Amino acid sequence: MKNNFDYVLLDCNPNLGMLTINALAAANTVIIPVSTQLWSASGLNALLQTILKVKKMINRELDIEGVLLTQTHENTILDREMVDIVNNTFGSTIKIFDTSIPYTTKIGMANKKSTSIIDYDKNSKAAHAFIDFASELMNLA
Q1: Could you tell me if 129 and 102 are in contact, meaning their C-beta atoms sit under 8 angstroms apart?
Q2: What residues contact 106, with CB distance under 8 A and at least 6 apart?
Q3: Which distant-in-sequence residues (6+ apart) come within 8 Å of 140 by Cβ?
Q4: Quick check: helix, strand or coil at residue 32?
Q5: What does each C-alpha distance from 45 to 24, 41, 96, 112, 138 come to in angstroms?
Q6: Distance between CA 107 and CA 71 in Å, rounded?
Q7: Strand order from edge to edge, sheet including 96-102
Q8: CATH assignment of 2-103, among 3.40.50.300, 3.40.190.10, 3.30.565.10, 3.30.413.10
C-alpha cells in the first residue's frame, strides 16, 4: 500500500494500546501531538519509551518527526511554562515544531459535524495554524 500514497496519516487515541502499537509498527515517522496541559506533557516520556521499544523490536525504520504543541493558550503563564518545559526537556533531541495549534471550541464543533476545521471555518486561528503546520511539515521533506 505504501507505493500507492505519498502520505498516510494515522490518528490514534491518546493511549498506548494495541491500536497505537500497530500504527507505530506500520509508520515511517511519528508526529507527537502534545497539549500544553500538565498530564499530556508528562505522558510524553511514556510514549517515547513505547516508540523506542517498537523501533527496537518491530519497526527499525520508525523515526520521530517531531512534537506538535496543541490546545495552546498563548496568553497564559501556565501555557508558556509548559512550552518552556517541553522545549527544555526534549528540544535538544526531538524537533519541536515552530507551529502550535491554539485551543478553540471551533475544533470541537468541526469534529461534531464530522468535518475538518478548514472546511468548518477556514478563517479561524486553528485553521490557519493547521495550514501553517502542513507547510512546515512539507518543508522538512
Answers
A1: yes
A2: 117, 120, 121, 124, 126
A3: 65
A4: strand
A5: 16, 8, 15, 31, 26
A6: 10
A7: 29-35, 63-72, 96-102
A8: 3.40.50.300
Measured CA to CA, the distance from residue 89 to residue 48 in angstroms comes to: 13
Q: Could you state, in order of their start, the residue ranges of all structural domains in the chain?
A: 2-103, 104-141
* Tens digit of each residue's pLDDT, the chain (141 residues): 667 877 778 888 777 789 889 999 999 999 999 888 776 766 788 889 999 999 999 999 999 999 999 999 878 888 888 888 888 988 899 999 999 999 999 999 999 999 999 999 999 999 999 999 999 998 987
Q: CA torsion, points 127, 106, 124, 69, in degrees to nearest 10?
A: -50
Task: For residue 33, list its beta bridge partners.
Answer: 68
Residue 14's contacts (CB-CB under 8 Å, 6 or more residues apart) are: 40, 43
Q: Is the pTM of this model over 0.85?
A: yes
